[in-house]
Amino acid sequence: MSANATEVQEYRDLYYKEEVDDRDNPFMWLDLSSSMGTIEYMRGYPYIEWSQRILTGKVSQLNTEYMTLLEAQKKAIVEDEYLGFNFSILLTEDFDEDVSGAVIFYKEDYSLAEGTVVTGGATASSTHKSKLYMKMKKDVMPESIEYYRETNNYQGELDYVSMKIPDEALNNIRTMSKNLLDNLDSVTEENKPAYAGPGSRIYIEYPLDITNQRISAGRHGVELIFYVWESMNNPWFINNGLQYSLLPDIEHIGTED
């Protein structure tokens, strides 16, 4: 995955000048630009907290699960269809992020054609207390918009980056993987590019399976590694801190080996 093409060119012009040696990746290079996919930085405090409340109305609830409060918050964020969750703990405990409790997640009930989702009182208990964590700005929940507060809109441990790759791009990767051996042959030995050295040759040794038999050629997978290049935290420093760059350098990711 590449950075924004304009930023990359500016970076090259600024630091490499005439020494740039462009070498196309002959195997795989995916740029998640607006035409190829989306990268979104999901920042925000996503919950309105209500003590001893539940969601009612046009809503369905999932079976009870047991996890920490932070795990429940993260799960509800990643599962976009969740409207929120109810978290129950002992009366002697506090609603800290590492406390474990019983969790009920809520979703919109699409079997009901009309209606909205509203809050109601939770059943009192002599041993437990609960808190409703309602996600903000959900159209089906009027209260989630009415009580939304812009000033409460940050909680760092719940931030995450969402990356979506279109099916067309994934299919191209699958095709590249299936034709991996042919692609390797096209850039090695007598077919190697002009800039490759005389020893340009690739040997592939397939691993053993659970029966200690060698996996046949072509039985391989692809590991996707995502690097998010983000300018809000720049500059990055290279050359032992003597030079700064507006984009990450290979030194921040790994070595040329």
Mean pLDDT: 76
Main sheet characteristics: 6 strands, antiparallel
Shape: elongated
- The total tally of domains equals 2
Tell me the distance between the termini. Answer: 19 Å
Radius of gyration: 26 Å
What class do helices, strands and sheet pairing give? alpha+beta
Helix fraction bin: 10-25%
Strand portion: 15-25%
Instruction: Give, in order, the helices and strands.
Output: HEEEEEHEEEEHEHHEE
Number of helical elements: 5
* Unreliable residue stretches: 14-29
The count of β-strands is 12
Provide structural commentary.
With 257 residues, this protein is of the alpha+beta class. The chain has two domains: 5-40 and 162-252, no CATH class; 47-155. It has helices at residues 5-15, 69-78, 142-146, 167-178, 180-185; strands at 38-42, 47-51, 53-57, 59-61, 65-68, 82-90, 100-108, 117-121, 128-135, 160-164, 236-238, 243-245. The two termini are 19 Å apart.
Set down the secondary structure blueprint.
Layout: H1 5-15, E1 38-42, E2 47-51, E3 53-57, E4 59-61, E5 65-68, H2 69-78, E6 82-90, E7 100-108, E8 117-121, E9 128-135, H3 142-146, E10 160-164, H4 167-178, H5 180-185, E11 236-238, E12 243-245
Antiparallel strand pairs: 1-10, 2-9, 3-8, 4-7, 5-7, 6-7, 6-9, 11-12
Question: Which features does this protein show?
Answer:
elongated; alpha+beta; 17% helix; 257 residues; six-stranded antiparallel β-sheet; 2 domains; 5 helices; two-stranded antiparallel sheet
Please outline what is shown here.
This protein is an alpha+beta fold. The protein has helices at 5-15, 69-78, 142-146, 167-178, 180-185; strands spanning 38-42, 47-51, 53-57, 59-61, 65-68, 82-90, 100-108, 117-121, 128-135, 160-164, 236-238, 243-245. It has two domains: 5-40 and 162-252, no CATH class; 47-155.
